[in-house]
């Protein structure tokens, strides 16, 4: 997402049309990026295994016991979030009856099963974000649904499409091996299962495996601690709506200021005796403006409304003009501001000129974001530290109406680490290194009773590490080995050497702000292929080597401009923690945008020959 900034010096005319100095902003962005760069990239985070496994234990259900399974199913879907649910729903609609869902959580929901922290909610409008609303016959209560409502909707999808039947919850896949003689996948799990499946669908989700920061002394802390994706309400009291009365006499520290922290910090600030928010890089915080669903509006919707609304939103955030902005929120406003000059044909219309125009529009929008911080946050030094100095889509934009106000509370302190991150953790608290009032770089320790990690999920690590299991394809070759130099797929869904395996992810496929929209398109594509397999009496589906190589070349070719943009960004999971590479380009999404990718799939289905797939 985004475009590369021009290295050319701004002309006098460019400066005269703006209320800021573009050259000065470029220098400031570069300076802020450079102070956060680390040679270790993604290796600065710790994998939650061994002594850290307690951070991923399920606090929401009691464990169940069952005997290992060795039976055979037609389609086995890994993941009970929106990806798995949409795959199951579209397969059911296509007439596939023999489906098994395998989910490590205690129920359907995926990220909305795990993320129950106070304030958790979708940041894309619920009317386009929650899938299958018309099919289920449900209307969200608010423009942005809370986590509990989204979890309940996930469960409703499971019931409506009979996906609970034969499902295996509290079951974590450990490996999958292809049996070439039997044309089956053998699926091993942490429960000793050796299930067999003709087809497997890997729908584990992109934000699936929690990560911890590799901070010195992390194992030495003796107070209470947990990750936001496994919120401990037994300790904090309250619930997803807040009222964290268990923290009334507690000093709480939270590490991380991304989308999760933006939503839970207001509740922590309201409940804790003292809250310290440890910040490496501030998020961009725009207006949210949540509100209840208008029943009169909902009653007037015509059949097909959700698909039309999804497409309208996706068009606008992809730069395609629409006569009406149906969603009309922060996302469409942000990207509308970025593209309005281009639509009007202002200025130099060469590729370099268009990139410069986009950059100037981005500068204007981020100046608004920084001005909003000044308007809301009372303390000038705190306000300055909360200003984001980077291009809008270097990090995921956030929308919230209480986060910035929380720093006006007397019991809340922003501990800005000036881009360094936390120095170390002690048995009783957190140590940071920052400049004092005299300009000296000094260490300071903050003692806390509870330390919360809002440090997100693994994104840039190997696919199989994030999935939590290894895939052994033909001749025992692992997916890790096959993708050692970067992913190799056809349409992001098929990988040669791994027949009858369908992958749902952002890797070499389409990316859109509204991720469930793309999951729905992938699910329709999956259902079409398996329906065709039945019609053609096919039992083996595999990517053709030449077709796969051509698709990888397409991905790499379309990603070069985006690579330049990401190199200019402050570190984060969008740019592999400041270390974008040719390998990460291969692992990226389809660079022509989500609309173009959807059309690729639609045209491929319309052509009808299943081009690029070997069938037998």
Could you give a short description of this structure?
The chain is an alpha/beta fold and 616 residues long.
Structure write-up:
The chain has 21 helices and 21 strands. Strands 2, 3, 4, 5, 6, 18 and 19 form a 7-stranded mixed β-sheet that branches. It has a 5-stranded parallel β-sheet with strand order 8-17-9-10-13, covered by helices on one side. It has a 3-stranded antiparallel β-sheet with strand order 14-15-16, with no helix packed on it. The longest helix has 26 residues, at 351-376. The chain starts with 11 loop residues before the first helix and ends with a strand.
Summary tags:
single chain; alpha/beta; 21 helices; 5-stranded parallel sheet; globular; 616 residues; 7-stranded mixed sheet; disordered N terminus
How does the SSE layout of this entry go?
Layout: H1 12-16, H2 22-34, E1 45-47, E2 72-78, H3 82-93, E3 99-102, H4 111-114, H5 126-129, H6 133-136, H7 147-160, E4 173-179, E5 184-189, E6 194-202, E7 211-213, E8 224-227, H8 233-236, E9 251-255, H9 259-271, E10 274-279, E11 285-286, H10 295-299, H11 305-317, H12 330-344, H13 351-376, H14 380-385, E12 398-399, H15 403-406, E13 412-416, E14 424-425, E15 429-435, E16 441-447, E17 450-453, H16 463-467, E18 470-472, H17 479-482, E19 501-503, H18 515-535, E20 541-543, H19 545-567, H20 582-586, H21 594-607, E21 613-615
Helix pairs in contact: 3-18, 12-13, 18-21
